[in-house]
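Crash report, auto-generated. Payload:
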Amino acid sequence: MASRNTYDEAQVIEQLRDPAAARTAFGKVIEHYSSTLYWHIRRMVFNHDDANDVLQNTFIKAWTSIDHFRGDARLSTWLYKIAINESITFINKQKAQNNISIDDDDSFLVNQLESDEFFDGDAAQLKLQRAIATLPEKQRVVFNLRYYDEMKYEDMSEVLGTSVGALKASYHHALKKIEAFLQEND
Amino acid sequence: MIGLGKDPGFKVPENYFEEFNKRMLDSLPEKEITEVEKPQEQKATVVDKPSMWVRVRPYLYMAAAFAGIFGMVKVFNMYNGTDISELARGMDDEKNAEELIMSGTSEYDILNYEDSVMMDAAGEELKSVTK
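Recovered output after restart:
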């Protein structure tokens, strides 16, 4: 926690541009963002081991393409973008391996959640995850960013490159679908 | 709104993030540090400025080529006894003349003219035979 308090993003970005200091600076980035990104990825892929792999891929991709990071954007925005892309890529690979159409929802990911040793939710929590998994991926991203991460629509707009209005509409539709699912499966 | 709280029920192994952060940092691939190559030291020898001849030479070649073309045109005209502009004017005049002649001439006139030419030629031939 002490390191979180001393995290100075502007300074870290400057150090990332210096080849001699970049590695140490990236260590600070990992320390600062690993938890936030992990939970976002975990809510996308559900399983802990998969979330761990996607988080690793996210940081490796960020590290190898750090030269493409524009200083005018926020590091968190850039890392979220990578994490979301990596999560969706992972889910699509899983669908291909399981002969599931790319257009189908991600319910298959929740099927093993009950037996997952790193899930201790009750029946209601499991049902909510099942409901969330029925959403299209992009709507699921919007729902998770708003509902769990409590991200502002303006920040979400930067991450997803979508207008605030469209994001609000997407979140509203997601809520309606989840509520409908919960009522149907009551 | 959903009324189920915001805890999804997920958990992680103990000390997961501490261990992950360390493991992640250790597993980062080495980045090739591309040092900016120092510019080669400038050679001590100062390159001479190009001489006047080198600078003027292309213009001289161009002037010589124009002079050659001009001379060739002059020589060509001298051997033909006329220059191109005159020939052009003539061609224009000839065309105009033909138009002038043909405009007032009927087909009948042309046939008469051809007959008279043929008669003249025959007369000349007869004369040469009778001599």
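Post-recovery validation: The two ends of chain A are 41 Å apart (CA to CA).
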